[in-house]
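Protein 1 of 2
SEQ + STRUCT:
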Amino acid sequence: MTDPRNASGQDGAGTPILLLRFPDGDVEYRSTRGELSVGAVIRSRGAKWRVREYVPEGYPAPADLPGLVPHGFAVAVNAPAAFRYLASTDPVRHAEAARLLDPTVGEVGHAEAGEALAGAMSGLMRRVGAPNGVAGVGYGPDDVSGLVRGAAPQRRLLDNAPADIHEPELEALFGSAMTCWGP
């Protein structure tokens, strides 16, 4: 696997490549109390099938769907929001992960660990051309309640998170996942 800390975001021919590769094709945050698969937040039942028009560059348009959000993008667009929310469960690991994704991140206090990791992930996403948050794949604030309804039944994933995640938390996560970085 290419080390994302040293990657230019392009292959030898200058073609952009996506370096967000994680075990089992998912971004997971593990702690002593469990894990939250942040992909559950958008790849919930029905959510990815409500995509209106988004089809990433280089992907064929699906014949039977109006759009397509690949699994990796569904996970990545929610990761910064999930990292911010979960940081208090293990700020040391969040700070360490931030430094691994972005070696310019220095020492980070416990209160800043989630923001540091969210920023490092957002920076990597931006460099490799990933969509900018949930809005980047075609969702908007009016879609939050539908996304919550789709994600809330994913109890196996949500109950293993190192923090409580129910409908109010999902609503907050989706709201803060609309964009990962500014203009």
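Protein 2 of 2
SEQ + STRUCT:
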Amino acid sequence: MDAASTAPSTSASTAASLPWSEPPASIEMARPFWDAVARGRLVLPRCSVCNRWQWYPEAFGTDCAGGSLVWEAVPATGTVYACTTVHRSFLPGAPSQVPYTVALIDLDGVVGPRLVAPLTDDAAIGDRVRAQFLDAGDHTALAFAKL
């Protein structure tokens, strides 16, 4: 198994304790990301001209003339850059799923973008984490946990 892949988890209890929203089906340009998550992998787009990572993919593409977004596998490991614990639910239909912690993750080898995802344990700023791909019923959800 390479660094960009992790076996999907089927931990229904962990998935049930976090506030999941479904992948945005209406945002076609993010489909490669969510398709990879469903397979237990992480991919991000990068510019075909300057190789700069770009997250969230924009409809207008890259800043480079003639550039296009190329999706590449990235490591499923990283470091917590920042995190906060949510005590009041603001997601529709999820009032019982608090508290939970959400973090900004610096992925290994990816300079620039950070992923926003829930933490499934007590990881803190500076902790090394690994992606978890959790069964959330009708889709696979992305979260991170300490290594």
